[in-house]
Amino acid sequence: MPTRRKTLIGGFLASLIGFFGQAPAQDFIDMSGKTALITGSTSGLGSEIAARLGAMGATVIVHGRNEERGQEVVDAINETGPGKAVFYRADLASLAEVRALADRVRNEHGQLHLLINNAGIGGASNDPRRTSADGHELVFAVNYLSHFLLTRELLPLLDAGAPARIVNVASIGQRPLDFDDIMMANDYNQMGAYSQSKLAQIMFTMSLSEQLDTDRIIVNSLHPATFMDTPMVTEAGRRPMSTVEEGAEAVMQLAVGSAIEGRTGLYFNQLNEARANDQAYDADVRQRLWDLSVELTGGF
Ligand SMILES: NC(=O)c1ccc[n+]([C@@H]2O[C@H](COP(=O)([O-])OP(=O)(O)OC[C@H]3O[C@@H](n4cnc5c(N)ncnc54)[C@H](OP(=O)(O)O)[C@@H]3O)[C@@H](O)[C@H]2O)c1
């Protein structure tokens, strides 16, 4: 079917979904006995996805910094079954902790079938610039750089679990990267930092897809939903416009949807394939980001 027609049909379906308030039932792959790591699953979108994967029978690695909330998510999955869950604590603002997280996943699991890079920080518009333990601009470090490193550390485990999937939870908020000041030392603003980190995630998705065997590992990115009712939105003083369930539906399509099999390197706006910011389609820029990311994460 021609792409434009597909897009029109997709748009029509999206309108219907919006009108009736729920997505049509999706056909999912079997996740029983499979292992999934969801970064940032102690609250918001991540905890909803963790619960859904647990209900599908997956072994879910719940991740975040807050042990109490993490344990609540784990207990709920273990009580409900049929899947099971464990909590791994790691601060993604430290590359050493990212490496330790990857080590633990490798040591305790023989295979990984699904990696959802979901953890993120947004912040409020008047937030000052902050830096990570490694001296990188904090939003870029947590939202993007940590996941660049974690994913590459876990690729052998994902390959062992093939066919495996990676989902990068990005956003419709995207801003071209300024390589002259990628750490925003000179001209910081919170929305700029967030939007830059999110476009970096999308570019990483595209670059990585070109290096992977699609029959073994696929990687896609998405904007889950706009202003969901999560702590990220409410703590920034914004009024929620959509639900976590809507965002989870979109993530689940890429994570476990049967229709996504064999499709990789794509960006979705909720349930529909979409075009990201123009800069993402510049192969030279993507290569520049890749090289910089390798350098910033210690040459791995
Ligand atoms: N909410 C929206 O409307 C919206 C829209 C577009 C995209 N997104 C994206 O969706 C994803 C999930 O967002 P959300 O709204 O569900 O946010 P949220 O409720 O604030 O959850 C963020 C998660 O990330 C974890 N996290 C934050 N900083 C971390 C760090 N330094 N180290 C480890 N974990 C960390 C948090 O865990 P701890 O608190 O335990 O550390 C939490 O589990 C994010 O990538 C966000 O950018 C959200």
List the helices and strands and how they pair.
Layout: H1 3-20, E1 35-38, H2 44-55, E2 59-64, H3 67-80, E3 84-89, H4 95-108, E4 114-117, H5 138-160, E5 164-169, H6 190-211, E6 217-223, H7 231-234, H8 244-256, E7 267-269, E8 272-273, H9 283-296
Parallel strand pairs: 1-2, 1-4, 2-3, 4-5, 5-6, 6-7
Antiparallel strand pairs: 7-8
Helix pairs in contact: 2-3, 2-8, 4-5, 5-6, 6-9
The chain binds NADP nicotinamide-adenine-dinucleotide phosphate.
Taken in chain order, the helices and strands follow as HEHEHEHEHEHEHHEEH
Give me the side-by-side strand order of the main sheet.
Answer: 3-2-1-4-5-6-7-8
Helices and strands: which structural class? alpha/beta
Helix content: 40-55%
Which assembly state applies to the chains in this document? Answer: single chain
Quote the average pLDDT.
Answer: 93
Low-confidence stretches: 1-21
How large is the share of residues in beta strands? 5-15%
Largest sheet: 8 strands, mixed
Instruction: Compute the number of helices.
Output: 9
* First and last CA, distance: 41 Å
Tell me what you see in this structure:
- It is built from nine helices and eight strands.
- 45% of the residues lie in helices and 13% in strands.
- The chain has an eight-stranded mixed β-sheet with strand order 3-2-1-4-5-6-7-8, with helices on both faces.
- The protein is an alpha/beta fold and 300 residues long.
- The longest helix is centred in the middle third of the chain and has 23 residues, at 138-160.
- Mean pLDDT is 93; it is low at 1-21.
- It binds NADP nicotinamide-adenine-dinucleotide phosphate.
- NADP nicotinamide-adenine-dinucleotide phosphate (NAP) binds at residues 40-46, 64-66, 69, 91-93, 118-122, 142, 169, 171, 223-228, 230-233.
